[in-house]
Amino acid sequence: MDFGSLCRNNWIYILCAIILLIVLGLLYYMVFRKKYYLKPGKEYILPEPINSVAIDDSNFYTISNDTVTKYKKKNGKQMVQQKFPSKQLKVGKMINGDLVIANCSKNKNVLLWLNPNDLSIIDALPLTFIEGTVLWIDRYWGEWWVSTVEHNKLHIYCFDDEFQLKGYWRYPKGTPVNVTGGGWFGEYLCVSLKDSPEMIAMELDGDKVNATFIKKIQVCFEGHGFVFEQKHGHVYVWGILDNNKVVRCPVEMDD
Q: Which candidate among 64, 84, 123, 226 keeps its CA 20 to 30 Å from the CA of 234?
């Protein structure tokens, strides 16, 4: 009896189908999943889950729900750690020499300015003039950029130094609501997606309400707050993998 006639028997047909599904699943994992995850050039395994990572020239900073920690880039050695009463510290960026963090506890958004030496609070600004929960913050072109989500709708705000509104955009149509990080690089505004090893690059036109989708960029992490780094003529991005690994990988920003 040949293979085709055997598989026409019900129980052997089911067995064949199961084997086929297993083989296809293994092929997907081996080929497609690995293909779209860039290999990290650096990796630091940390003891707690992390929401965001920020950097300066010599150090990286991790932000978890209630803790901010400073590490040496060179060897991953912990330098300073500070706990906060907040239970929902979200994202952070090094801006003008200070570590600026978004605190989203009790449905209230507050920006905290921290001294990078001892991680003490320098200043705080309640963001009472925006609705929703802060997803990411950045400062670029001399302006402040804040993104929020409210009732599954994504918003981008631009403020001047006095935090007076200068611009407002919605994300490109079809953008998943699981945005977890964002930041500017050149003319591109890039955002990360939870559980997805890619960033979405978009442009903001002054005469349009919706941002314009440009392309997807492969990265070595899955969502969370990230940051770009330019060094020795190359572009790198720092992000978070598996919730407790800080990783850095080179990225191709131009086609």
A: 64
Query: 215 by DSSP, 3-state: which?
Result: strand
Q: Please indicate, yes or no, whether residues 116 and 138 belong to a single structural domain of this protein.
A: yes
Question: In terms of domains, do 105 and 200 share one?
Answer: yes
Full residue range of the structural domain in which residue 15 is found: 1-36
In one-letter notation, the amino acid at residue 239 is G
Give the side-chain half-sphere CA count within 13 A for 223.
15
pLDDT in tens, the chain (255 residues): 554 554 455 556 666 667 766 656 555 544 444 445 678 889 999 989 999 999 999 999 999 999 999 999 999 999 999 999 888 999 999 999 999 999 997 778 999 999 999 999 999 999 998 989 999 999 999 999 999 999 899 999 999 999 999 999 999 999 999 999 999 999 999 999 988 899 999 999 887 899 999 999 999 998 899 999 998 889 999 999 998 999 999 998 876
Report pTM.
0.84
Place of tokens 């929960």: 133
Query: Within this chain, do residues 31 and 51 fall inside the same structural domain, yes or no?
Result: no
CA distance 179 to 192: 6
CATH of the domain at 153: 2.130.10.10
